Amino acid sequence: MMKFYYYPVSTYSQKVLLALYEKQVSFEPYLVNILDQQEVEEFRRIYPLGKIPLLIVDNQHLIPESSIIIEYLDHHFDSGTRLFPAGNYDEIRQMHFLDRVADLYLNNSIVTLMFAKNRRTAEVDEAKRCLLYCYEQLNRRLQGNSWIMGERFTYVDCAIIPPLLYAERHMPFQEYGNLLAYFQRAQARASYQKVLADALPLLTAMGV
């Protein structure tokens, strides 16, 4: 069985968990507390770079990086939700771009706001500007659509949904009706409910 190393409050871990639950594949979860230096050092014996998430298949093949893990899952498992369109290069290219937007402008900006007291004012202002841009673009894209790529849940949704949990807490997007409705749909989805069940108790304990 595949082994999945993750940390429940990590957006990149949540991204892969969403895909695992959507694909309905079995895996062994291994929680790595990235705030515990001893646990991180023990994890480095498995993966020297010490980055999560990490998927291990066939007891030896290591697959790092959230997007690469999801591509592997969708290619090797026909069960559950199809996360990539078959043979549509233009759509896949667009999905890869939106995945990078989630990484660079949603995730990074939210991290800056979460630790704003340790950041320069200019950094915080830039993070807010990037988030507003993301909100506007996503809100426009979701006009008439249930999910980011239309009516089909895809790997882009796996990337966009996790950071919205933190965005909602640090820079709410209530005035963006389409985006708000999208996040509410995500919260009602079985796969994301499983992710939240794992993450929320830890977030509460951390006071995040």
TrEMBL record:
Domain (GST C-terminal) ranges: 87-208
PROSITE patterns registered for this protein in UniProt: GST_CTER, GST_NTER
InterPro entries attached to this UniProt entry: Glutathione-S-Trfase_C-like, Glutathione-S-Trfase_C_sf, Glutathione_S-Trfase, Glutathione_S-Trfase_N, GST_C, Thioredoxin-like_sf
Sorted UniProt keywords: Transferase
GO MF term list: transferase activity
Ranges of residues in domain GST N-terminal: 1-81
Keyword Transferase in record: yes
Protein known as: Glutathione S-transferase family protein
Keyword Transferase: yes
Any matching Pfam family: GST_N_3
Protein origin, superkingdom: Bacteria
CDD domains linked: GST_C_family (cd00299), GST_N_family (cd00570)
Entry-linked Gene3D superfamilies: 1.20.1050.10, Glutaredoxin
